[in-house]
């Protein structure tokens, strides 16, 4: 593998459900060392009404969320793609993770929206880890939170990571 594949990469969205997981899946298939995270207070998925999202704690297994939504309305959540997305997610890892709870060091952190970038930067700056004194590159690529754009965003993130070279 190339030097780039030795990079430790984190991909971060708000809920660790769609954009970060699509990129996680694609980068892992390309041989990258990657983990994915969210930065929100909770994991939020669209509900049957716009003002009533489905809200879960980080760490709630994807399988549990899948079963919860399927029991609420299997046809609705199949049609809008959430059950397919959760099925993909549970094949990659067990549950959504919160970036701010991770102690692992990454070489590159890619966020998928400006608000998430700001949250990651706040966290990284607050860590002020003088012991390691190692750089982390935090990059943002704005990706709309829908299935199609998440796929395109994963391709763009992979292209970006493939172009990163360190001296």
Give the secondary structure arrangement, pairings included:
Blueprint lengths: L7 E6 L5 H11 L3 E6 L4 E7 L2 E5 L5 H18 L2 H11 L15 E4 L2 H14 L9 E4 L6 H17 L4
Parallel strand pairs: 1-2, 1-5, 5-6
Antiparallel strand pairs: 3-4
Helix pairs in contact: 1-5, 2-3
**Global structural class:** alpha/beta
| H/E series | EHEEEHHEHEH
Number of strands: 6
Strand arrangement in the largest pleated sheet: 2-1-5-6
The span between the termini is 18 Å
Counted by DSSP, the helix tally is 5
For the sheet with most strands, the description reads: 4 strands, parallel
Q: Could you say which overall geometry the principal axes of the C-alpha atoms support?
A: globular
- The stretches of 5 or more residues where confidence is low (pLDDT under 50) are none
The percentage helix is 40-55%
Strand content: 15-25%
Radius of gyration: 16 Å
Can you give the mean pLDDT? 92
Give a written overview of the molecule:
The chain has helices at 19-29, 62-79, 82-92, 114-127, 147-163, and strands spanning 8-13, 33-38, 43-49, 52-56, 108-111, 137-140. The protein is of the alpha/beta class. The strands form 2 sheets. It has a 4-stranded parallel sheet with strand order 2-1-5-6, with helices on both faces. A hairpin with a 2-residue loop joins strand 3 (43-49) and strand 4 (52-56). Helix 1 crosses helix 5 and helix 2 packs antiparallel against helix 3 (82-92).
